[in-house]
Write a structure and sequence with these properties.
The complex is a heterodimer of chains A (172) and B (318). Chain A has 172 residues and is an alpha+beta fold. Chain A is 18% helix and 14% strand. The radius of gyration of chain A is 25 Å and the shape is elongated. In chain B, 69% of the residues lie in helices and 0% in strands. Chain B contains ten helices and no strands.
């Protein structure tokens, strides 16, 4: 009994000279994986337009109801959010909004340093969320692949899409 | 006159140094525990975190010093002072180096044992006066543990007394000129270290506190600086026990090259470090294991050690 206790004491003592596992955070930065679920952003498509089509799927998917938005349309019939609000004091960074998004607009980024002294400052508006880049999915433009007709693009003009068949012309 | 002043400086110096060492021990312990667990420990407040204890003390002073309305007030207030007083009084007989030390008591060893026995009162009264069932349970455990480990703590030291032929700690140190008593009294040393751990209620034997089951044991109702007294009292106790081990078994201030007081401090800190390492590595035994270990293993071992030492000394006639 004494012997085994002494062995464990020695084994613990050897840890005095081992490498520390602590990452001293403010000076040392931890490694964040590319798919880290951190601060939420809204990305833009390659043309610099907003990707978000205000379909409300993220707001529906959100388990804590921290996303709210209002859809509207521009003169080309293209949908976009009039305002888009994420309350980060509620957000649990589950990433379900990112999974629900059909247009890769909403994305989670490897950034977690969003402390605020005032709770109200944690409510991010659309201007705070929108970034200028494309985020994780480069070259993806929802309106270029979706079969929906908007101003400047008619039916059948999307990528990988044949021109619509006029059924009447097929008549014998 | 000048002798009185010298003596006063001696006393105050020892008091201040001992108290500041004890006050810095929580930081030392937390740092060392951190290193033993592959962490860093507190290293933010001041250089290497040395001011952590200051921050803790400020925190303790700003806390509400609450006395429960159901407690036995005078006893509740006196209890934490008892432990500090007894342990600090014990330092009076510790011979730090040839010139440093408060009194040269003929029965210094007995005085130390008596004072550590009085320490039980602090724990018992604290647990009793708080009028709380958990603190009472903790105090009961503490009293049982400390009383039963005291028995062979005294006995384990008797071998040293037999060899050196004196109860005077200064003479015991001088008697170790040729050989430290840790070699002829190795069993006594082991028994004494284990008993000392139980006496100071440090981790392998901290059943009196047992924060995972009794919340905090006997000092459950204490807050503010009254709690701080128990907290620091534990570390003063560790310092005392370490210096006693050094005095009794490791030649006290004796050592080559360096001045005597430096040797004493180095040896004492070695044993403080050993206690912290033990805390980091050993699990807490069950209470019946603790008791049966004390009475069935340690007590016979101490008695056997006493018998053999006595026999050898008698036979060789030295």
């Amino acid at each position: 009994m004494i012997i085994s206790a002494l062995i464990s004491v020695w084994n613990v003592f050897k840890h005095l000279f081992k490498k520390r596992v602590t990452i001293q955070y403010p000076e040392e930065r931890p490694y964040l994986a590319p798919r880290w679920r951190g601060r939420i952003i809204l990305s833009r498509d390659p043309n610099g337009e907003e990707r978000c089509v205000a379909c409300y799927l993220c707001a529906v998917a959100c388990p804590v109801d921290c996303i709210s938005l209002q859809a509207t349309e521009d003169e080309h019939g293209r949908r976009y959010p009039e305002w888009f609000r994420i309350n980060f004091s509620r957000c649990i960074f589950c990433g379900l909004c990112e999974e629900a998004c059909p247009t890769y607009a909403i994305q989670l980024t490897p950034d977690f340093e969003m402390c605020e002294y005032d709770r109200q400052n944690l409510v991010y508006e659309k201007e705070d969320l929108l970034i200028d880049g494309q985020g994780k999915y480069h070259g993806y433009n929802f309106y270029r692949v979706a079969g929906v007709a908007i101003g400047g693009k008619d039916k059948g003009e999307s990528e990988n899409e044949d021109a619509p068949i006029d059924l009447r012309s097929l008549l014998p | 006159m000048s002798e009185t002043v010298l003596h006063l400086i001696n006393v105050l110096g020892i008091l201040i140094v001992v108290l500041s060492i004890a006050a810095s021990l929580p930081w030392v312990e937390r740092r060392l525990l951190g290193y033993l667990q592959d962490r860093y420990g507190p290293n933010r407040v001041g250089p290497f975190g040395v001011l952590q204890t200051v921050a803790d003390a400020i925190k303790l002073f700003t806390k509400e010093d609450w006395i429960p309305p159901f407690a036995d007030k005078p006893v509740f207030i006196i209890a934490p002072t008892v432990i500090m007083t007894t342990i600090l009084t014990s330092f009076a007989v510790v011979p730090f180096s040839p010139g440093i030390g408060v009194i040269d008591l003929n029965i210094g060893l007995l005085f130390f044992l008596a004072m550590s026995s009085l320490g039980v009162y602090s724990v018992m009264l604290a647990g009793w006066s708080a009028n709380n069932k958990y603190s009472l349970l903790g105090a009961l455990r503490a009293a049982a543990q400390m009383l039963s480990y005291e028995v062979f703590m005294g006995l384990s030291l008797m071998g040293v007394v037999i060899i050196s032929g004196t109860f005077n700690l200064r003479n015991i140190v001088l008697a170790q000129k040729n050989m430290w008593f840790c070699i002829p009294q190795i069993i006594g040393l082991i028994v004494f270290i284990i008993a000392a751990l139980a006496e100071t209620r440090r981790l392998p034997f901290d059943l009196t506190e047992a924060e995972s089951e009794l919340v905090a044991g006997y000092h459950i109702e204490y807050s503010g600086m009254k709690f701080g007294m128990f907290y620091i009292g534990e570390y003063v106790g560790v310092t005392l026990i370490s210096s006693m081990i050094v005095t009794l078994f490791f030649g006290g201030w004796q050592g080559p090259f360096l001045p005597p007081i430096v040797w004493f401090i180095i040896k004492t800190f070695f044993f403080i470090g050993l206690f912290i390492t033990l805390r980091a590595s050993l699990p807490r035994p069950r209470f019946d294991q603790l008791m049966s270990y004390g009475w069935k293993v340690m007590l016979p071992l101490a008695l056997l050690n006493l018998l053999v030492t006595g026999g050898i000394v008698l036979a060789t006639g030295s």
